[in-house]
Amino acid sequence: MTPESPRSPRPSRAAAASRPEAAPDTSPQSVSVVVCAHTNDRWDDIVAGQAGIAAQSYPALESILVIDRNPQLLARALEAFPNVRVIENAGRGGASGARNTGVAVASGVPDPR
Fold first, then answer.
1. Does residue 52 fall inside a structural domain?
2. Residue 6: what pLDDT?
3. For the chain, what is the largest distance between any 2 Cα atoms, rounded to a whole number of angstroms?
4. What stretches of 53-96 adopt beta strand conformation (E)?
């Protein structure tokens, strides 16, 4: 840095990395998992995905399954997954609307990355 420079120098990466920062709560049961689905054709994948979420060694606070514009799939999922929060997409149709619906109701801690 030159003497005429008005900005202060940036700390080195090592110095910045060694500084303690408030970390998000990453303890077990602080994460929400949001899965979106729209077709009965992928039912086996939906079932396998929910089983995989339940079997994780790092348990989720909640599992949210968002059904996009498919009343039959919604009814089937509500019956099949009593321990999953199954909801209908309340936003725009499609994957992005379904994800946004799931994130809006999630109670887990956001990942700061």
1. yes
2. 53
3. 70
4. 62-67, 85-88
Q: What residues make up the domain containing 58?
A: 26-105
pLDDT digits (tens, 9 = 90+) for 54-89: 999 988 999 999 999 999 999 999 999 999 999 999
Residue 62 lies in a domain: yes
Q: Per the structure, how many domains does the chain have?
A: 1
From the CA atom positions of the chain, what is the Rg in Å?
A: 21
Identify whether the C-beta of residue 68 lies closer than 8 Å to the C-beta of residue 37.
yes
Residue 41 maps to a domain: yes
Could you tell me if residue 94 is left (phi over 0), alpha (psi between -120 and 50 degrees) or otherwise beta?
Answer: left
Residue 37 lies in a domain: yes
Q: What would the pLDDT profile of 18-32 be if each residue is shown by its tens digit? A: 555 656 555 557 889
